[in-house]
Design goal:
Chain A is built from 4 helices and 6 strands, in the order ααβββαβββα. Chain A has 135 residues and is an alpha+beta fold. Chain B is globular, with a radius of gyration of 17 Å. Classes of the chains: A alpha+beta (135), B mainly alpha (168).
Chain lengths: 135, 168
């Protein structure tokens, strides 16, 4: 640092500022931001986080929403380990009709159905996936 | 995987240890206590929203980058895209002991265009290395160097800017 730079740095050090932070308000707003990102990422259809400390968030389809991509029209549950989840679900008698594999979005996914035959996807989010980048 | 409570506790601890430093950054970037407070809250909220990704990274550096970018967004909303020096921005009127010193610094910093101001604040108020400043602002080390020296030259030329002593 030059003399000027060192003096400026010293000058800054003599000044105290106090900017209070309300951490609980921060976290409330942060959760809202996170939810909004999820909804944006999913085109506002149905969104999820699950298993373990399970949280399932479902959103109503936005008015006039017509997905160009029908593959978004299903419920997807996120798990930490898709292979382990599939194994456990099979052990409990569910039919995992599409076994876990890595998809083009880098996530590991497998498929089962609910008792009515509706598709349910179980997905392990990869850090390289577009979904992870939306978090 | 840590539980949500553990993650929240880690985040609270992170805020406790980093808020003095980020508060300084925000204050010197804006020169206004109220705006600085909003800026810090928003930067922390965005950091919390991405907390699962931030783990393992340098969380303070991450939050500071968010803070600087959030401030730039605020700037753009207020001024359009043209970077003008914010000469008449309000200064903090908090009646603290060194308020004169703070006001003088805020007035001086208001003469800097926003990138120079960000570089000067991060480099000298926050004591970051040139590399850290470059990473926080998403610019090259060369740009940090030139912005720092131009910013310093602007400050030095101000009539109400007197560095202690005469060696100028």
């Amino acid at each position: 640092m030059s003399i000027d730079e060192a003096r400026l740095a010293e000058e800054f050090q003599t000044i105290t500022v106090d900017v209070p932070v309300d951490v609980e308000a921060v976290m409330t707003r942060g959760r809202r931001l996170r939810r909004r990102r999820w909804l944006d990422a999913a085109g506002a259809v149905a969104v999820v986080v699950a298993v373990g400390a399970a949280v399932v968030a479902l959103a109503v389809t936005a008015p006039g929403f017509a997905p160009g991509n029908k593959s978004y029209m299903h419920l997807c549950l996120e798990v930490d380990d898709c292979f382990a989840a599939a194994k456990e679900l099979e052990a409990r008698g569910l039919d995992i009709w599409a076994k876990p594999k890595v998809g083009t979005d880098h996530n590991v996914q497998c498929w089962t159905r609910d008792p009515d035959g509706n598709l349910i996807e179980i997905m392990q989010i990869s850090p390289e996936s577009p979904q992870a980048k939306c978090r | 995987m840590p539980t949500r409570d553990e993650r929240d506790e880690a985040f609270r601890a992170f805020v406790r240890t980093s808020s003095a430093s980020l508060g300084r950054t925000a204050w010197f970037l804006t020169g206004d206590a109220g705006i600085a407070q909003d800026l810090v809250q928003e930067a922390y909220a965005k950091t919390y929203a991405s907390w699962s990704r931030v783990r393992g990274e340098d969380a303070v550096a991450y939050a500071r980058r968010i803070l600087v970018n959030t401030n730039i967004d605020r700037w753009r909303r207020r001024h359009g895209e043209v970077p003008l020096a914010d000469v008449d921005a309000p200064v903090d009127a908090d009646p603290e002991s060194d308020v004169d010193e703070r006001d003088r610094m805020a007035r001086a910093l208001n003469h800097l265009p926003r990138q120079q101001r960000a570089v000067v604040v991060l480099r000298y108020a926050d004591d970051l290395s040139e590399q850290q400043v470059a990473a926080a602002l998403g610019i090259s080390v060369g740009t940090v160097k030139s912005a720092a020296s131009r910013g310093l030259a602007v400050l030095r030329a101000l009539p109400d800017w007197e560095l202690e002593g005469e060696l100028r």
